[in-house]
Amino acid sequence: MFDNHRPDQSFPLLVKMLDAQQSLSIQVHPNDENGRKFFAEPNGKTECWYILAAKPDSVAYYGHQAQSAAEMQKDIKNHQLGSLLTTIKVKPGDLIYVPAGTLHALGAGIVALEIEQSSDNTLRFYDFARIDPVTGEQRPIQIDKAIAVTNFPNHIPDEKLTQPVVDFDNPAITSILRSPYFQISRIKVVGKTQITH
Hints:
alpha+beta, 4 helices, three-stranded antiparallel β-sheet
């Protein structure tokens, strides 16, 4: 039973496997307030990635350098997107917390387990000028709406959210994320185990 989840409610989380054979589109999701304001949905989307596999030198796009929406719009107009976006190196076992309002994308060569709030609200900020094989055109992007829900300046999550904490009552369980929306633990299993909650 999920804490505080009523049977008549939609399940509040989505869990996905992502296999980024090429860099995914850079996107942003609204927070709960903007989800209600712009999309008439009950919540936004905060998510995280647990990196399962990554080729050497793989990176994820994570956040930006702009201090304001006006600065971001100016950089886009001047074709300075490369200096605007930030990247981080990733390796297997990394946990990357992506609060709503953060520009983000997995780079090529990464396989990740994604845990997120249940929402379809995705605003595409940049798609590397790729062509949709079905339409023969570039996929649509939503820069103005994406900027409207992006955090300025870029919000850096509290490191305590992702600091590993071993459960002393059960050392096989290590808490690796404690978010307001979900909590994630890594469980070491040898042979058979029984988990109670």
